[in-house]
Amino acid sequence: MSMLSVVAAAATYLVAADLVYAVDHYLVHHDRERYRRTHGRHHRRYNGTKDGPQLDAYELSTYGSAAVYGMALMSALSLLTGNVGFFLGAAGKLVHSLVFHVYQHRWWGDVPLRRQGLPPARRSWGLASARYHAFHHSHPDDTVFAYAESWAGFDRLLEWCHPWLVKHTVDGRAGVHVAERRA
User: Fold this and answer.
1) Of 9, 23, 130, 164, which one has the fewest beta carbons inside 10 Å?
2) Cα–Cα–Cα angle for 131, 136, 137, rounded to 5 degrees
3) How large is the average pLDDT for residues 25-29?
């Protein structure tokens, strides 16, 4: 097995997992009940003043659970294919998620987010910056999507698919509009 095939397998997993993250993040924002039960806590926490560690037990558990599932599946795929890159990609995704979480929430501090006066997110095909992610927290229902963890291009693709995709979300099937969800 060549080093190139190991790197390609790891990179494939990382890109696929980032896509899954972006789509799931989009879906949770279009499922009023799931948002209330799970993700709303994340938004409330980071929109206020800093009152705890950058990664709390809930977030570590969430990322850890995703990593366990990913590494279990990718270890099986690595055994089947003989390419350890799949497992290394899954392990790398955990490290990536933890590091990016800390980076993306670096604006969290003594000044609540809405008082920081950050400019709106710009549509981009580049990396999702901390400022880009901060905009998502302060304007979660804006027409400039900022759901992606690392590559903003996934948001551009979600914006393109949105008119069709939103009809197939939990809220879309129930006829709930974004403005109604936040009320």
Assistant:
1) 164
2) 95
3) 95
Domain count, the chain: 1
**HSE on the CB side for 56, CA within 13 Å?**
8
Specify whether the CB–CB gap between 148 and 154 falls below 8 A.
yes
Phi then psi for residue 86, to 5 deg, are -65, -45
Q: Residues 48-94: pLDDT tens digits?
A: 899 899 899 989 999 999 999 999 999 999 999 999 999 999 999 99
CB-side neighbour CA atoms (13 Å) of 140: 21
Short-list 73, 80, 65, CA closest to 16 = 73
Query: Closest by alpha carbon to 93, among 18, 157, 143?
Result: 18
Range of the domain at 93: 3-181
Q: What is the DSSP letter of 19?
A: H
With a threshold of 0.85, does the pTM exceed it?
A: yes
For residue 58, what are the β-bridge partners?
none
What region, left, alpha or beta, does residue 82 occupy, with left being phi > 0 and alpha being psi -120 to 50 degrees? left
Please tell me the predicted confidence (pLDDT) of residue 183. 40
pLDDT at 72: 97
